[in-house]
């Protein structure tokens, strides 16, 4: 059975979604304001070697996730730091949506049978593992439904002061699996829900 890992960026005060004056306080950007160091880039690339599928929310797909990384792969064809762009293109991508009938992206299929049903079916298939990318609403729904086997948070050296959490109001007990600090100021923490023992 495949594990589903929810990978998200987060502020030190626990926000996964916050903007100030239209500017996102952090985001996936290896150039700044906290440029990712070589070890962190290497870790991110290695993460994609442990999976064989990406689970995406409809907004993530429609707002350009696949198109963005397709363009990035074309702009960095021989850059080893950007190996992940080519890996993303080669992976099977599953968009969870009942609003899209046909995918317009390569190596992508639509799963529209309901969140829990579709994710459980994906996890039941043989393979290495799945990573989920999506906004806070999608991530919260996965978390509330108990579908996430591991959380991998890229903790940015920024305090949002406001924003949204992906956890339910009554919280969720977690067990720490791994924590690694990087020279650029980022910390990557991996957890599993404690009830998964």
From TrEMBL:
Taxonomically, the superkingdom here is Bacteria
Domain (Bacterial bifunctional deaminase-reductase C-terminal) spans: 2-187
Q: What is this protein called?
A: Dihydrofolate reductase family protein
């Amino acid at each position: 059975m495949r594990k589903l890992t929810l990978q998200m960026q987060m502020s030190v005060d626990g926000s996964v979604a916050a903007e100030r004056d239209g500017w996102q306080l952090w985001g996936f950007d290896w150039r700044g304001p906290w440029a990712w160091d070589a070890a962190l880039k290497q870790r991110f690339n290695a993460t994609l070697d442990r999976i064989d599928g990406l689970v995406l929310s409809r907004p993530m797909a429609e707002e350009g996730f696949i198109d963005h990384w397709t363009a990035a792969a074309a702009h960095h064809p021989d850059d080893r730091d950007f190996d992940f762009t080519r890996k993303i293109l080669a992976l099977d991508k599953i968009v969870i949506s009942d609003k899209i009938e046909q995918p317009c992206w390569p190596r992508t299929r639509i799963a529209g049978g309901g969140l829990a049903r579709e994710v459980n079916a994906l996890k039941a298939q043989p393979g290495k593992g799945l990573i989920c990318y999506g906004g806070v609403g999608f991530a919260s729904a996965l978390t509330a439904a108990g579908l996430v086997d591991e959380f991998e948070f890229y903790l940015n050296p920024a305090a949002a002061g406001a924003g949204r959490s992906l956890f339910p109001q009554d919280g969720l007990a977690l067990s720490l699996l791994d924590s690694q600090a990087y020279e650029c100021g980022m910390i990557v923490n991996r957890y599993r829900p404690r009830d998964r023992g």
